[in-house]
Amino acid sequence: MIENLEQYDKIVMLKDGSRVLIRPVRANDAEDLLKMFTTLSPETVYNRFFKLRRPFTIEEVEKMTSINFDEEFALVATPLQETELKIIGDARYYVEDKTGAEIAIVVQDKWQLKGLGTAMLQHLINIGREKGIREYYIYVLSDNAVMIHVAKKLGFKLKSQSYGISRFDLIL
Ligand SMILES: CC(C)(COP(=O)(O)OP(=O)(O)OC[C@H]1O[C@@H](n2cnc3c(N)ncnc32)[C@H](O)[C@@H]1OP(=O)(O)O)[C@@H](O)C(=O)NCCC(=O)NCCS
């Protein structure tokens, strides 16, 4: 059965008053997602991918936008006012086994610390619950104070720590 993905659309207001639509990614988002990735600071790339990587290609991003929503789910954030970037955040999970799914998130630098990351993760948690996922986990660099704060605020608990990477778990 083809799922109605629009049911997962959600408009949120950020701390600075701007309004953003959080919605499931679409295949035709590839170019806008690539634009966002190419504007990320090295620090943000490092915190998301744990390495300073070569530039993203359209092929890589197309794989991230053409997903089946069965074993993975991706939300993007798009500002409702006119801005340079159409996509300013990406939060996703990948189902790793029958019950658990790994989460990853990035918010474009100019849009960080306005409440968007928290809102995207909260929405992803609600979607995961609805879809029967029992456990989420996220790997975070141990010095990523902002992500650790957000994870704890959303109920994630520190599960393990090694080689500078912490794993936080949330039972849904
Ligand atoms: C981590 C990330 C997703 C958070 O999203 P965001 O939109 O910036 O975060 P929010 O604005 O929702 O929340 C930030 C919180 O950190 C707090 N904070 C800010 N600076 C902080 C610091 N130095 N130490 C601890 N907490 C801090 C803020 O006060 C806020 O908490 P509050 O809402 O309880 O006041 C975003 O910063 C990002 O994309 N970082 C790079 C990629 C990354 O780290 N991904 C995670 C691993 S996959």
Describe this structure in words.
- The chain is built from 5 helices and 8 strands; from the N terminus they run ββαααβββαβαββ.
- α1 (30-38) packs across α3 (58-65).
- It has an 8-stranded mixed beta sheet, sandwiched between helices.
- β1 (10-13) and β2 (19-24) form a beta hairpin.
- The chain has 172 residues and is of the alpha+beta class.
- The protein starts with 9 loop residues before the first strand and ends with a strand.
- It has helices at residues 30-38, 42-49, 58-65, 116-130, 145-153, and strands at residues 10-13, 19-24, 72-79, 89-95, 100-107, 135-141, 157-162, 165-171.
- It has a single domain (5-133), classed as Aminopeptidase (3-Layer(aba) Sandwich).
- Coenzyme A (COA) binds at residues 44, 47-48, 104-107, 112-118, 140, 144-147, 149-150, 153.
**Tell me, what's the shape?**
globular
Number of helices: 5
Helix coverage percent: 25-40%
CATH level 1 name:
Alpha Beta
Low-confidence stretches: none
Q: How far is the N terminus from the C terminus? A: 25 Å
Overall structural domain count: 1
Please give the CATH architecture: 3-Layer(aba) Sandwich
* Biggest sheet character: 8 strands, mixed
Write down the overall mean pLDDT.
95
Order of helices and strands: EEHHHEEEHEHEE
Going across the biggest sheet, name each strand in turn: 1-2-3-4-5-6-8-7
Q: Assign the structural class, choosing from mainly alpha, mainly beta, alpha/beta, alpha+beta, or little secondary structure.
A: alpha+beta
Radius of gyration: 15 Å
The CATH topology comes to Aminopeptidase
**What bound compounds does this protein have?**
coenzyme A
In terms of DSSP E residues, the strand content is 25-35%
CATH-wise, what's the superfamily?
Gcn5-related N-acetyltransferase (GNAT)
Extended strand count? 8
